[in-house]
Write a structure and sequence with these properties.
This protein is mainly beta. Helices cover 12% and strands 58% of the residues. An 8-stranded antiparallel β-sheet has the order 1-2-3-4-5-6-7-8, with no helix packed on it.
Amino acid sequence: MKIKAAFLFLILTSFSIVFGQTKIFKVSNQTFIIKNKKVNNEWESKDDARELYIKANGKEKLVLTYYAYKDEGGDCNNLFWDEERLKVQGNKIIITTQHFQKRMDPITEWEKKTFTVSKNGEVELTAHLFKKLGSHEWKEDEEWYKQ
């Protein structure tokens, strides 16, 4: 009987790892939920979207959407795609985007958006930084890439 229970537990755990569609975490004593979605795009492929919700008064409110993978299409010479990751540092939620391309056109390679979460549940964009290919320095204004 113990072997059957252990086997059943292993199967259920595997399903939750493979098919788990939500992640719950807290920032500034606020509960956030990430829901995974496959989204059709204009390039006839699917993007891996992540919807971030805040839970308050028993209801979920969409805060923002970011993409684990987003097909950005291309032109006659190049293809573009993005990958985004979310991390929490103290009272901040940070979304880091890496912009990829098949060839090496002069595009922004990294983008970082920092959202500050207040104790009453307000989520505010407090920084939006950019980093070009090969640089170690984050800049506030993407315009400097055009120099």
